[in-house]
Fold each of these.
Amino acid sequence: MTSAMARRLAEAAALTALAATAACGGGDNDGHPSPEPTETVSTGSEEDGTETPTPDESGTTSDGDETDGQIFLGSDSEEPSASDIELPPTQVGKPVQGDVDLQVSKQERTTPLQDVKGTIEGEEAEMIEKCLGEVPPEGCNLIFQYTPTQPGPYTGELTLMLADGSTITAAIHGEATEGPTPDTGPTTPESTTDEPTTDEPITTEPPTSSEDETPAP
């Protein structure tokens, strides 16, 4: 009888162990189920061979300094042309500088530049860079300077004389404003307040008796 009881206890223990194993169901040692693998989505060029575009870091490109006008010297088959020269605003008595872009033909030879003269309001402008001779294919910057003597708009013209005797003329426009008045320092008005006058006390001295005066009886 003892052996039969021991056999039943052993069978019950075996069943309990099997039930515990089935309940775990292949989890990890802590009893938590293993996480399922997740899919990753690639945005690169591994699947379709395309790359994600990146923003342009260079931004807008600069074409260089701006000029106040442009003159095309022309050639045997191309007529010369000139735009108006718009000078930046300035003040009376302060010089303003004009920068003109000279361009030549890319296909044909251009006649050399012999002389340049600028006249504004009857006065001759000071030429700083004339670009005389053969103008290079990349062009040249012709620079002059003018000092206005009175406020308001003014006009003039720039004349280019080529070696073959022909000329090219470009109109000049500008405006001058009244310069600042000279600073002589702050002026303070003179004080017009009258100071109160104090009357000096009038003291009367008692009459002194004369030694020669005889006393009254």
Amino acid sequence: MIDRMILAAIDQLHERRVTRIDMADVARRVGIDLDVARTMFKDEDALDEAIGTFGIARLADEMTRALVAVPIGDDRASLIALARAYIHFALENPKLYCVLTTQVLQPRQTDSIARLYDASFVPLVRRFLGETDCPPSRRAVIARAFLYGFTDLALEDHLELWLPSTGDSEADLMATVEDFVDLLLAAGPGNRNGATKDDAAEAEARPGATATPPRPA
């Protein structure tokens, strides 16, 4: 019954595009009296929190399983796996994803479960980006912004406006994720102008060429 109430609340929030649960409507959707509903969730805030726990637990499980399948030490594959799992979760659970990210749990409160979960991935992503032994760059936040925006494009069926279709939307979507990860890794934490140390050395070795050193981090 608790899961049925959570699912009914998700449907309500998604359908109405509201940020506040109507407990009486949730009870009606489930087919129980309001008084009975309040024995399971004393108020709307308690049901909000339950939605967050319900959704984040499922997203965390999907992303964890994706990481476990990646060989240890393969940072590129780890980043791709995280992104794929996130996008697949959203596409398989569009109502829940939209409620988690754009309605009930958009954090005005700094201790919301969605915000805390997002924060827990910051050091992990920076580690996969090779930023454990140097000052962090902006690549992690760029990665997060891409993932959020790209997922939104997929959910709204706007990808075909931006991607040349090969006839396989799943392959197009995943290939774009791989391309983006490669761009992030090619930039490197200390190469914000796009030049690498190898680029600079190669340019300096050319006759008459002047190398452009990488910008310091």
Amino acid sequence: MEKSRKKYVVGVINVRNTKSSVMEEEFAVGFPDNVEIVMAYAPLELVSYDGLMGFLDALPGALDQFIDKDPDIIIVPSLTGSAIKGYEIVNILEQRSGRPVIVPALETKKCFKTLGIRQIAIVSAFGVELGLLEQLFFRNHDIEVMNLINIFDEPSDDRLRIDQVDSALILEKARKEDFRGAQAVFFDSPTYKLRPIIEELKSLIKLPLFSVNQIIIYSALKRLGLPADHLPIAEYYREEEERRQSRV
């Protein structure tokens, strides 16, 4: 049997009671049919620093939910959580599970470094407090955040609000915000439903666009040794490779 047809299992530790199905929809499109996605859940009581710490503390226990599936790789799709404790999350979960673990902050940093991206704009669904923690993470890795754009104008204690990001609101922000100085725009939540509006977004922003979902799918496929050329993000890697070849 060809390697590409081998069956794989990808475990994802998501937020319990989320109302968003965007990540599952993106995974269904991005992963081939020989990859099974299995979900585990940890609680996030409130979108705040304290709430996020509670979610991160619950991650090791969530591994027990994979006991009958034995995933080949595990994804924790929390951008802000992994911006705060990325290496710790990876180390603890890998030691406990014996499987490779992918978190978006570390994979995003690696992606931007590979592509030579040093200035970004972030479209954040998490408010000022957590957005600043993301900004600090990138700054610590020599990636400057030129503009931190909050998708919601007013703070909210309703954590479910981030599960229902209106595509019209995303486009409205794209029309109003200033992306000058940035080399790329990064959407920091796996709940952004970008696929239906991606062409309009590209025409408005005119910069490479990156999302949590695309980066973690690409990283997982590469880690599993599976092709990732069908993903939109792969275009940026091809362009960078062509630039490198032209300089040789």
Amino acid sequence: MPMPPDIPRIDRRARGAVAPEYEDSGLFKGGVIQVQLALVPVFGTTSRGDCSARGFNADGTEVTVVFAGRRRPHFQALYTQLRYMYAQAQHKDALLGVKMRDINSIQLPVQCEGSWRAQRQQDEQGQEQRSLHFMVARWAFQAHDGQTLKFGTAPLLSSKPQGTAEAKRDRPLSYSDVSPAGRQGTVFGR
């Protein structure tokens, strides 16, 4: 059987060569919104080496929350809090002599600012599976000691003027498109 030809790797920019504006324009293409997600202590990494955690939106739909680019180092505090919650649940269940609870029941409410992405993949049977990803820019949560902790960095999106009404209609929704009333009372103080 003939071997497939070697396909050269895609040359991506070196990490140091990527400007924050360039990085954020790729991460937050669909605009930036704020959502409340419940994160659980199930972690992973993406093919690009970004950190991820399992979460659930208000409807109970499973979401992969991705901490990409220069925000990866800020993920440690959230990881530590979720691991702490897991250890507490494990200890409590052991003291009660019961089977360890479902990991999805260990939830940390997190206020997130970022952008939604839908991803399509095929399973083993060839069926298309759709999953939701939330690319997070900033996040805040209440630690076990009651302190509200805020992490991440505000997205740096270019504010190039859009000329015509048609151009405005065709561009992705941005944070500035949301009415000021919809932005009041946010945890990030915009």
